[in-house]
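Why do we care about 3D structure at all? Because function follows from shape, and shape follows, mostly, from sequence. That is the central idea of this module. The next example makes it concrete: a single protein chain, its amino acid sequence, and then its structure expressed as tokens.
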Amino acid sequence: MKAKEIIKIIENICPERLAYSWDNVGLLCGDKNKDVKKVFVTLDTNINTVKEAISKNADMIISHHPILLGGIKRIDYSTSVGQMLKLLIENNIPLFAAHTNMDTAKGGINDKLAEMFELTDVKILDQHTDDSSAGLGRYGRLEKTIKLGDFAEHCKKILGTPFLRVSGDFENDINTVAVASGSCSEIIPIAFEKGADGVIMCGCHPGDCHYSTGNYYARRRMTLLFSMLDFIGVENGRTRVEWVSAAEGVKFSQTMNEFAEKIHSLGKNVRLEDLRCRKN
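And the structure:
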């Protein structure tokens, strides 16, 4: 099977036009005509994941988070980015990324999050394209009203994460819930305007999950729940947080498994390696 055939299957579900203008999605490196028998799937692409893909004899890498997001003016082999590109090119491994287009697409990561929480009457929070079925974030109603404290524990179980940062009164009633993946702090006000009692952000980036953000909404009796993987001690007097989201990784993996099923239904011999959530 050619890499371009796999790309076509993915783009039929989450086309590049659904990505935000600042994003960098699609085939980022490599030959679309490469014959592919084994695909390595990862949340992040860095020098470690590329080395692992090579060690597993992968013919192609599919990543959620893209490389070269800020552009590149030189390829210096003494840098980690330069080393990574060198390895990809030398080993003839195409790298494909599906990022905000996968977040926003119908049946993508945001819809999967809504399904996990069994939300009803689900609607899109921020529709940024002409496609009425796609957009960043979803909101809907829970089966029954629940206190924030109980809902936080419920979230941890559903998302499979040991830690959850919560901003709000634990006695608040939660019924209408908004969910969003990735860096999406800009849609928090939209969620509350649409009547959400709480916002669950999965895959928070450092700028999304800081004291002032949580405190601002807490003072306005608004509830935020941030999902992340791990807290790792204290460094230079400040808590150091590993900003890798278990929840985002799980949903990306499940979405890619559905893509794999579509590929297998065509009778193609392509196997996807298990998702690896990597620490940068």
